[in-house]
Design a protein that fits this description.
Elements: H1 2-10, E1 17-22, E2 27-31, E3 36-39, E4 43-48, E5 51-56, E6 60-66, H2 88-98, H3 108-111, H4 121-134
Antiparallel strand pairs: 1-2, 1-6, 3-4, 4-5
The chain binds calcium ion (2 copies).
């Protein structure tokens, strides 16, 4: 499977998107820009210029390359300032936003670190926790 996957990626340079069909027949499409796939026995991890997403392999029915638009934007949770990584800079930007600096352009989906559909001080705390844990 690994060899097949690598060959598919290598031959896919003319395609713009990679589409996964899941066992429930829903599909997710990812931009090929900077695309990299890694997987273990449980998950396939899709990394592209927009971020990283993980799909359980058990849910993947089919994978195909396509030129269809409509790529699913990948949200890197915690990357509030959308620079592709989660750093202390994201805490600063999120804190600025919390302080009412509404001119601050943040990625609201990425800022909802604790996934309660609201941007609160709890997300700042969760983001700091995330950073502390990633530095262990
Ligand atoms: Ca960032
Ligand atoms: Ca939240």
């Amino acid at each position: 499977m690994l060899i097949a996957l690598v060959a598919m990626v290598a031959s896919a340079e003319t395609y713009n998107y990679l589409k996964f069909t899941k066992t429930d027949n829903s599909t997710v499409t990812y931009s090929m820009e900077g695309l990299k796939l890694t997987y273990d026995n449980i998950n396939v991890t899709i990394t592209n210029a927009e971020g990283t997403a993980t799909l359980p392999l058990a849910q993947v029915l089919n994978m195909e390359f396509t030129n269809d638009p409509g790529a699913t934007p990948i949200v890197l949770i915690g990357d509030v300032n959308r620079d592709g990584e989660v750093t202390i800079g994201d805490v600063t930007v999120l804190a600025d936003y919390m302080l009412g600096e509404n001119a601050v352009d943040i990625d609201l989906a990425a800022a909802d670190v604790n996934s309660d559909n609201d941007i609160t001080i709890g997300d700042v705390t969760a983001l700091i926790d995330m950073l502390l844990n990633s530095n262990k």
